[in-house]
Amino acid sequence: MDTAYETVETDVLVIGAGGAGLRGAIAAAESGCRVTVICKSLLGKAHTVMAEGGMAAALGNVAGQDSWEAHFADTMKGGKLLNNWRMAEIHAQEAPDRVLELERWGAVFDRTHSGLIHQRPFGAHTYPRLAHIGDRTGLELIRTLQDRLVHRQNVDVHMEVTVARLFASAGRIVGALAYRRADGGLLLYRARAVLLATGGAGRIYRVTSNSWECTGDGTALAYEVGAELQDCEMVQFHPTGMVWPAGVRGILVTEGVRGEGGVLRNKDGERFMERYDPERMELSSRDVVARAINSEVVAGRGTDHGGAYLDISHKSPDYIRRKLPSMYEQFLKLARVDITKGPMEVAPTIHYYMGGVRVDPETGATRVGGLFAAGEVTSGLHGANRLGGNSLTDLLVFGKRVGEAAAAHALQHGKAGAPRSPEVAEAIACLLGPLQRPEGESPYRLQAELQDLCSKYAPIIRDKPGLEEGLSRVADLAERSRTVGTGGPTGRVFNPGWHTAQDLRNMLVNAEALFRSALARKESRGAHTRSDYPNPDPSLATLNYVVSEGTEGMTVQGIGAEPIPDGLVSIINRSYEKYTPEETE
Amino acid sequence: MTVSISPLKLSVFRGEADRGEMVAYSVPVREGMVVLDAVLWAQANLAPDLAVRWNCKAAKCGSCAAEVNGFPRLLCKSPVDDYAGEISVRPMAAFPLIRDLVTDVSWNYEVNKRIPEFTPPEADQHDPEPWRMQQVDVDRVIEFRKCIECFLCQDVCHVLRNHGRTDAYFGPRFMVRMASLEMHPKDGLDRRPLLKGDAGVGFCNITKCCQEVCPEHIHITDNAIIPLKERTADAYFDPIRALTRRLGRRSAG
Ligand SMILES: Cc1cc2nc3c(=O)[nH]c(=O)nc-3n(C[C@H](O)[C@H](O)[C@H](O)COP(=O)(O)OP(=O)(O)OC[C@H]3O[C@@H](n4cnc5c(N)ncnc54)[C@H](O)[C@@H]3O)c2cc1C
Ligand code: SF4
Ligand code: SF4
Ligand code: FES
User: Fold this and answer.
1) Surface of A (37-66) touching B: CB under 8 A
2) Which chain B positions have a beta carbon within 8 Å of A44's beta carbon?
3) Phi-psi region of B62 (alpha: psi -120 to 50; beta: other; left: phi over 0)
4) Residue A443 structural domain
């Protein structure tokens, strides 16, 4: 077995090239560091590219009365106050500048009549707040940042390279082990600072809107190197994924459809949101709408394929094709449904990980020296439920801040220490293990079993017996995964069986954290609903469940959050003037 | 919609650079299945090392470009019931093969680095007020910005595919890229010397094969390349552009 590796030295190692990684890398490069960006896919293909609806920022271009305070209040209320208030404050204050900056780097947005960036309404945002371009805002963000990055000095991008292990020495991060997909070659990165921007873990579920990359690598890598995770029970079900035909189940139907006036009906034609949130109706927060659709289905009022109808066909075909071009195309091509003529069938799909690495709100620092994190891999900003549009601005706001902090750390600290060679040898042996077990179990089978069990035992509505069963099955799978193979072939050149075995390792850590945290939170709050504890428990309102590696394995501990300062409490409780749109079709 | 009960006959190119063969798999059909689903089913159940790129399975990332029954397509946007009988999948032919359906597309990323980035004029750069642009002006570039970099257009362009002139022509994808910059209401650079020179816009002879395969329905030739040719031709002579002008201006989309 060839255990040779190349060594790459850099100042700041950025793991991930979604919005957070790209923005972080630009910031680090502009701070004067040598930056190396690695990503599992080709550049520009990261999960962020799929984002549709828009990015939330209180620019006030459509509703002049919008303000950072209103955005902050919406974010906190949407997150059921479990959010890290300081992150929510920073996010609301800095998001407008980051969006305008993106425009100055060449991003193109839809315009208002007066020529400013247009903003569309979205669930639980008091004012129209989402800067967008049609329904492909993520592509615009990725392409703009990608182009900006590759034209910066001192930046290297290593595409289709996957990090398998992080190394720390004396409480400080020193490097990472990775493999290249194209030839199976090993790489040892030595860095003074590492920025984790690896995204979420939505692939641990069967029905998901997430890209294959979302296997929770960053959370698992950070956990194993000594960082803490938090709020891992908070998994967002997006209310509207495609349900039919079976082959497309889970693909996202943007909230933009409801933002543009789409209505939800059950099989009896009833606009059922009237019963769940008469005030905000379809534009209620995601946890509420997802539970509402779920309840309709459970009560026997679902569509034939177990969902609800979402209808926008009362708008003119031209308007629909202009505002929702990708949705129009997606349904026409994949479901043979013309959404300008009839309703879509939708049901909840796994969408976003509110939980993740626990970080310092100002700098994204973890408790491991030199290890920083930004984007969906982190926790805090979104609390118990994320509002649509808040992720893309999260990536920009914290990508920049954390990229700068990582650069500052790298510049302050001298040459990076070296990973200890026994640790490197052990990590390489572990990485190459599946290739030496042609008879080992198929990683595809184990992955499928894991996805099925998460979907079954940690669904929208959870309870103790189910969660306990899920946890014990995860333990069984983890045991079996120790001798996982590649499915047979043992070549190193672009061998997806081998890659899947690596992903599986990370997915299992994420699943265990999910079940343990969900068992710990004995209440219902935001995205976490328990039938055995159907109500919120005020004593848990400011408690975060924090996961870390103890001597006996994974531990979960409730840690009280810093109280929200009075000034911010009054901002949250303030009543904001209602917005009444002018009809502008 | 037809529900097919007999399994699908899928044949996939398997192999590395210098040797390879078509291998047949029998795949159960689910309603609404796309060719990527069939390939991934074969991978999970019959051929664990079958190499294929994909990310989103929603036609948004441009990773899964390949040739299905000889036609360049996104695997995740090709419903299997579009095809009667056997489906054969091969890698893109214009790029060096890594393995099975995966090709080395890194050349494209090198080309992009050679195109100067978006650069607003000084006055706009320092304008303290938020920029104002009209929707009509923005609409001109929106089409180009839809590009998901699947490189299918590069795959079919005969200049690259048949003549291998990667040294002389950047290819349709990067004509689209240049158009998106050149026609951006706030861009202030002049990329015409590059277009005429290293980018080789003159090598395009307007066969329009590229725009036929674009999954984003970008009118690559009509709306990007021909106007770029016209712009450069204002400064330089281009025989093909002279011909199109004689044939009358095209308009599309
Ligand atoms: C269909 C869809 C629509 C959405 N629409 C919106 C929207 O309209 N507005 C909004 O605000 N949010 C939206 N979201 C959510 C938002 O897109 C994501 O939360 C966000 O893009 C995450 O960005 P990120 O930079 O944190 O990570 P990602 O974009 O997930 O990028 C992760 C990066 O890390 C790399 N990586 C992962 N593991 C490793 C490893 N082990 N080694 C090396 N590299 C690794 C990956 O290759 C990738 O480059 C949407 C999500 C989906 C799925
Ligand atoms: S129109 Fe030009 S760019 Fe397009 S395929 Fe033909 S020669 Fe290539
Ligand atoms: S222009 Fe069209 S075909 Fe070419 S890379 Fe872009 S999306 Fe693909
Ligand atoms: S997998 Fe993203 S375009 Fe096909």
Assistant:
1) 41-47, 49-50, 59
2) 61-62, 149
3) left
4) 438-540
- The alpha carbon of B54 and the centre of ligand 4 are apart by a number of angstroms equal to 5
A258 has catalytic annotation: yes
Residue of chain B with shortest Cα separation from A212: B55
pLDDT in tens, A254-307: 988 999 999 999 999 999 999 999 999 999 988 999 999 999 999 999 999 999
Contact across the interface for B77 and A110, Cβ inside 8 Å: no
**Beta strands A229-230 and A55-56, pairing class:** unpaired
State ipTM. Answer: 0.93
Q: Are residues A37 and A167 in the same domain?
A: yes
Using the 3D structure, point to which of B59, B82, B103 is the last residue of a domain: B103
Nearest Cα of chain A lies from the Cα of B224 at a distance, in angstroms, of: 17
User: A238 catalytic, yes or no?
Assistant: yes
For the record, the structure tokens of A431 come out as 């990485």
Q: How many domains does chain A have?
A: 3
Question: Is the Cα torsion angle B49, A164, A444, A206 positive or negative in sign?
Answer: negative
CB of B64 within 6 A of ligand 4: the answer is yes
Question: Measured in Å, how far apart are chain A's first and last C-alpha atoms?
Answer: 65
Pairing between β-strand B8-16 and β-strand B19-27 as defined by DSSP bridges: antiparallel
pTM for the full predicted model: 0.95
Q: For ligand 3, atom 2, which residue shows the shortest CA distance?
A: B214
Which residues have CB under 8 Å from A582's CB, separation 6+?
Answer: none
* Domain-terminating residue out of B60, B86, B103: B103
Specify the CATH number for the domain of residue B149.
Answer: 1.10.1060.10
Tell me the per-residue pLDDT of A182-220, one tens digit each, with 9 for 90 and over.
Answer: 999 999 999 999 999 999 999 999 999 998 999 999 999
CATH of residue A119: 3.50.50.60
pLDDT above 50 (res A239) = yes
Q: Which of B76, B92, B149, B213 to mutate to test the pocket of ligand 4 (most atoms within 8 A of CB)?
A: B76
Q: Is A117 on the interface with B (CB under 8 A)?
A: yes
Q: Are B61 and B21 found together in one domain?
A: yes
User: B97 lies in which domain range?
Assistant: 8-103
**Separation of alpha carbons A293 and A307, rounded Å:** 7
